[in-house]
Amino acid sequence: MVQAVAAPTARRRGRSAAVPRLGRVTLAWGVGLAIAALGLALRLAHIGMIPRFTDETDEVAWSAAIVAGQHLPLVAFASYDGAVVNYLLAGVLFLFGLDPLLPRYFFMAAGLLTVGATFLLARELALSSPRFAGAAGRGPAVAVGLLAAAMLALSPVHIIVNSRIAYVHCMTPLFTTFGLWLLVRAARTDGGRTFGAAGLVLGMALQSHPTVVALVPGAAAWAAWKMRPLLLSRRVVPAILLGVLGCGTLIVHNLATDFGSVREALAKSEAYARQRGEQPQPYPIALRLEAENLARTLAGAIGDRREATVPLDDPAVRAWMILAPLAVLVAARLGVWLPLLAAVPFILMLPIFNAKFEPLYNGRYFMPLVPFVAASVGLLGVSMWAWLGRAGARGVAARAGIGVAVLLLGASPVVALRAYETAALDDGGNAPYYELADRIVRERLPHERILLDSDLGGARIASGQDGTSVIEYLLTMRPDPVPVTSARIDEMSALARAAPGEYVLVLLSPSRQKLETRFRLTLVGRAPAPTGHRLADVRLYRVREIR
């Protein structure tokens, strides 16, 4: 009789325990989907309009040339990056066809995947802490992951730069975050296959930008401490081989070119300094500027234009100057040492690679570090929430205060993002470029080629060479590409003389004045209304007579 009564009671208890657990799982999924939806909405808004197209056009043209069978490169357009991202983008262009906005959607997808990878890394770091050990810690670990993912999902730099601009480097955080998640998971589960996958992905991360080297000392120190059994076993060999495979094309290129990647990286740094007329910053000053702009990047204090500087007395910036190091130290106190071990050498080494730290567009250099900070903030927040839950009425009030603080910290980046978007759209964004490209397509005859004034863009500061200008990019990346030649005055004159009826000349006023001494030019279509934008000065001409 006792057994008969006890059995239904046990079943009821099991069901009652399962219901709250099911509710927590449903809530976690709901919050996760809400974060993903918000991240998607923020990244989709005005994706084609802002930011303005930059020399990302060179990277996309490099990938389009792979699709066209023109080359199979070992490295990216900038030879200090490997070609792995270019081949991934080339695959997307091959599947879906040429479209000037497709690369931005591709990088947006990579940005959303990075948000997901941040959740995985933060949850795994939490599970590696003794505080979250066991089945009871899985729920809090998920909460840590969700907080970290939300922080990256709302980051204006990650939204505007990493999730839109088609630089190879903008995909670096995806590789580093996903690879380090695999590494932490391999350490926690003693997984040899996971260890091998981590080697492959981290090798690909090294291809994406030289600054990844700054993460190596901290990650290596952590692995030597936490992964000794795996490192001393035969399973380390496949991981090393897969890591070499992951960055193989970059290794082969440097062996074949006497470390050409290193030489180009140094030359680019010197070229930027010459162009700006700057002297190298003393290392202590560079570190201070880096710390200040890291706080701005974490706070989402991006200003209303590129290279804008938000004052350090901004409340959000001040909060992050305190919160970020505090959270990383608390994570270490909880037994999660990887954020601290990764952050210190990264911050100390980054000024050696790069001396530009303003959030737009150079906040991307900090992005591999941001998931660690986000995970640390998640650990701090969840731990405080649990501790205050045992503090009675005072704890309830403190929890309410934490909730308000989290909402304010989450709203601040969104407000800053909207302010930037408003200013950028008021300035026209990419609209003038689209309008000029549409005008060219509309006015040209089917047999005519386009001679594009080289002063319309394409000259690169670092190399001094001509790249792909925005107008050339918009014309050649169409599903029905327009034949374009970007040329200087003498080159344009020679081509027009050889075949005067085959070209439409797209000219700014200075070039038009020079060419009118050599040709009789006829205006094509109607001149656009003056708007104050540089492109409003552009006119289309045909050559009717050689003088």
Mean pLDDT: 90
> What's the alpha carbon Rg, rounded to whole Å?
27 Å
Helix content: 55-70%
Distance between the termini: 114 Å
SSE series? HHHHHHHHHHHHHHHHHHHHEHEHEHEE
Proportion of residues in β-strands: under 5%
Helical run tally: 23
Structural class: mainly alpha
Q: What would you say this structure looks like, in words?
A:
This protein has 547 residues and is mostly helical. It has two domains: 8-426, no CATH class; 431-546. It contains 23 helices and five strands. A five-stranded mixed sheet has the order 2-1-3-5-4, sandwiched between helices. Helix 21 (470-476) links the parallel strand 1 and strand 2 (484-487). Helix 4 packs parallel to helix 7, helix 7 packs antiparallel against helix 8 and helix 16 (338-353) runs antiparallel to helix 18. The chain is globular and about 90 Å long. The protein starts with a helix and ends with a strand.
Structure in a nutshell:
By secondary structure, the protein is mainly alpha-helical. The chain has 23 helices and 5 strands.
Supply database-style keywords:
mainly alpha; five-stranded mixed sheet; 547 residues; 2 domains; globular; single chain
Write the layout of secondary structure elements.
Elements: H1 2-44, H2 56-67, H3 84-96, H4 102-127, H5 138-153, H6 156-162, H7 172-189, H8 192-208, H9 216-226, H10 228-231, H11 236-246, H12 248-256, H13 260-276, H14 283-299, H15 315-333, H16 338-353, H17 359-362, H18 370-388, H19 392-426, H20 431-443, E1 449-453, H21 470-476, E2 484-487, H22 489-498, E3 503-507, H23 509-515, E4 519-523, E5 539-546
Parallel strand pairs: 1-2, 1-3
Antiparallel strand pairs: 3-5, 4-5
Helix pairs in contact: 1-4, 1-5, 2-3, 4-5, 4-7, 4-18, 5-18, 7-8, 8-11, 9-16, 14-15, 14-16, 15-18, 16-18, 18-19, 20-21
